[in-house]
Amino acid sequence: MSAQLPGIFESLAPTLDRYGYAAIVALVGLEGVGIPLPGQLILIAGGIYAASGHLTLVPVLLVGLLAAVGGDNAGYAIGRYGGRGLVLRFGPYVFLSRERLAKTERFFARRGHIVVSVGRFVDGLRQASGIAAGLARMRWRRYLAYNAAGSAVWVAVWVLAGYLAGNHIETLYTGVQRYGIYALATGAAITVAVLAGLAMRRQAVDA
């Protein structure tokens, strides 16, 4: 018997019932390579399933994080090792010239870490930031660090929202979508706090 998923989450019940954790891995991971899938919604649904005992909370969090980081890094690899040639060849057809691509690369070199970490909370950026970072040739270790931090916060926020809010999650999620700028600001603040904590810990170890 499946858990009761409210409203917009109801359509995900058959997928979770049949595939469980694998459904979370697939939807979240494939979203990271640019495919528009309901990765955010499946995390919330996974949290609801964990609260009802159909899944377990810690594995939901772990597979969500691994899928998010893995998918984004696959997108990064596509952008870095295959996407640039495709963009240079077909970019002019979508008004993406060499000059605009160069500007994108310079932007990521200076502020790419902000897009990579906070972009997890923004539809569109979430699907494209890995590919864009690869195209901009952002250093992989730098990308991985910020991506992992942003993904950890993103996964925890939505899984725990589903776990704690239960049947009230649809109202909460609708409100977040309506006031998305505040959600983005909150996500950014949390992400910055996490990154600052990691930096302070590294300084303490080095000292």
UniProtKB/TrEMBL annotation:
Signal peptide: none annotated. InterPro entries: DedA_domain (IPR051311), VTT_dom (IPR032816). Pfam families: VTT_dom (PF09335). It is a multi-pass membrane protein. Residues 37-163 form the VTT domain. It is found in: Cell membrane. Coiled coil: none annotated. The chain crosses the membrane at residues 21-51, 57-79, 144-164, 179-200. Belongs to the DedA family. PANTHER family: ALKALINE PHOSPHATASE LIKE PROTEIN, UNDECAPRENYL PHOSPHATE TRANSPORTER A. This is VTT domain-containing protein. It comes from Mycobacterium gordonae.
